[in-house]
Amino acid sequence: MPESTLIPLWLTLKVACLATLASGLLGVGLAWWMARRRFVGHALLDALLMLPMVLPPTVLGYYLIVLVGRNGLLGRYLDQWLGINLMFTWQGAVLAAAVVSLPLIYKGARAAFEETDPRLAQAARTLGAGELEVFWRISLPMALRGITAGLMLTFARAMGEFGATLMIAGNLPGKTQTLSIAVYDAVQAGNDAQALWLTGVISAVCVLVLVGSGRLLQTRH
User: Fold this and answer.
1) Banded model confidence at residue 208, pLDDT cuts 50, 70, 90
2) CA dist 220 → 53, 147, 183, 204 (Å)
3) What is the pLDDT of residue 206?
4) Higher pLDDT residue, 206 or 181?
5) Nearest Cα to Cα of residue 101 among 30, 19, 206, 17
6) Which of 38, 131, 147, 168 is least surrounded by Cβ atoms within 10 Å, i.e. has the fewest?
7) What average pLDDT is seen over the chain?
8) What is the CATH number of the domain that holds 45?
């Protein structure tokens, strides 16, 4: 495999893994909470959590710039207080991929939690178990296959992220250039052979992930 492919492949895998971890922790926690609670604004919050799935990635990228850019709502404080700047960095690419892929794990995990028998959790509570114990010992094990399938889809989506990543992380070869951006670069340069090779690599990885997640979902059902 040529070095021009290895570098963006390694960066893409690193970004996708970290984005999956971040969105997985947040998405599973929110899914469990939303599946077990009903409150004023529940439908609105659910819609906001699903919004990255339907908004154009460039719009999400712009929102991220407004939020964490050097002069953004949070970015200015991150820069002044902690010396953290996410613009044009691979960490910014992780943030973009995590935001874009969050709805996949959130929706999958919430559906898995809602399919679990609530009587088991209630029985555990009557025996003195707290909410965290119910989560770790009852809800999470029963929903694990659905959550795992959601995480695999999240990983695949994070690997293919383009628009929001380009907006916030830019296109810096060896630093922020992921596989999808490298494909765009190759096409723009008229390097069809490089573009074909890169698309083949990312397509193969995504197909393997989709086949694996599909088998998990079939096993669960």
Assistant:
1) confident
2) 24, 11, 36, 25
3) 81
4) 181
5) 19
6) 38
7) 89
8) 1.10.3720.10
Place of tokens 């997640």: 213
Find the mean pLDDT for residues 195-218. Answer: 81
Pair 60, 96: CB distance under 8 Å: yes
- Per the structure block, which two tokens stand in for 7? 């570098």
Contact 65, 170 (CB under 8 A): no
| Token pair belonging to 172 | 């810096």
Amino acid letter, 86: L
Q: Which domain holds residue 104?
A: 3-220
Task: Provide the 3-class DSSP secondary structure of residue 38.
Answer: coil
- pTM score: 0.89
| DSSP output for 140-175 | HHHHHHHHHHHHHHHHHHHHT--HHHHHHH---TTT
pLDDT above 70 for 55:
yes
Q: How many CB atoms lie within 10 A of CB 25?
A: 12
Encode pLDDT of 77-133 as tens digits. 998 898 889 999 999 999 999 999 999 999 999 999 988 888 888 888 887 888 888
Domains held by the chain: number: 1
Residue corresponding to tokens 């995504």: 206
